[in-house]
Amino acid sequence: MHNYQDIQQKLQQLELKLRHELFLIIKDISPDASQLANNASLGDVIDFLSQVKLADTDLFTQLMKLDAALCQLDLGLYGLCSDCEMDIESTRLNTDPTEQRCSSCQQKYLNEHRLELRLNH
């Protein structure tokens, strides 16, 4: 079982780090960069990145995974694989607290999407 407060703290630390990265990226794009990076909801930040054509960035992906992890935590579903709904291995969650799949489902996902992933990178 996962410790709710520890997970919440890890996710909050990650959010602060990502918001700082966001500010560095958008400070020249948006006059409201500081306000957006520091005070906007994650949903608003994600929408903004889509509007300014930054949805294909690693930061966007990380923010989406963070938003999903926070929602799962609120719903009591944190740590369950989004595909098979079994527990995600603790080592995977320790490495990346926003992980959405167990190792088995992640491997299946990578195999099924390898052509798409190759085209994107």
Automatic annotation (TrEMBL):
Protein name per its UniProtKB record: Conjugal transfer protein TraR
PROSITE patterns tied to this protein: ZF_DKSA_1, ZF_DKSA_2
Zinc finger DksA/TraR C4-type domain residues: 76-109
Pfam families xref list: zf-dskA_traR
Keywords carried by this UniProt record: Metal-binding, Zinc, Zinc-finger
Zn-finger region bounds: dksA C4-type: 81-105
Signal peptide start-end: none
